[in-house]
Specification:
Elements (H helix, E strand, L loop, with lengths): L1 H13 L6 H23 L4 H5 L1 H25 L4 H12 L6 H8 L4 H32 L20
Helix pairs in contact: 2-7, 4-5, 4-7, 5-7
């Protein structure tokens, strides 16, 4: 890690990278390097190891689904928010940003890929589909109640006539 920081300082001192390049480098790391590192760590793990982490998987499921449900109900009933707003609040509260901890995995050792992969699966198989379902139901409920962007008697503006 220290070598990486030193390389960054040397590259900045030499003018190899500019502040505008930071967004490109961040995007490359988050879209390519971290997923490939997680994939390599998961594939190289012996088959017996994930079965040892079954209690962790159960705890993650209970934590993610439980927190999602509590925030959804609290937002919906106590704060009287719309279903779509409540679902997004529940997803935000219950979906941890576990892939970012993969970067720190090298500080604590290599076996961190399995819990990170399991947490990502739990979020992708529970919280995200439920959120999409509630967003869709809320949108469908608005359309059936007649709440659409075009009111009765109004017309959408026609596109400009082509020049020619």
């Amino acid at each position: 890690m220290v070598v990486t920081f030193l390389l960054g300082f040397v590259a900045a001192w030499r003018g190899d990278f500019w502040p505008k390049d930071a967004a490109i480098l961040n995007r490359m790391v988050l879209l390519y390097a971290v997923p490939l590192m997680l994939f390599a760590g998961t594939v190289s793990t012996p088959r017996a190891e994930p079965s040892q982490d079954l209690p962790l998987l159960i705890a993650m499921c209970v934590a993610v689904v439980g927190l999602c449900g509590v925030v959804l109900l609290l937002s919906r009933l106590a704060f009287r928010r719309r279903m779509s707003t409540s679902a997004l609040a529940a997803l935000t509260a219950s979906a941890p940003a576990v892939p970012f901890s993969a970067v720190l995995g090298y500080l604590f050792g290599g076996p961190g890929a399995i819990p990170i992969a399991m947490a990502s699966l739990v979020v992708n198989l529970t919280a995200i589909p439920v959120t999409i379902l509630f967003l869709t139901l809320d949108t469908a409920g608005e359309d059936s109640q007649g709440k659409c962007p075009v009111k009765d008697g109004e017309h959408l503006p026609s596109p400009p006539a082509p020049r020619g």
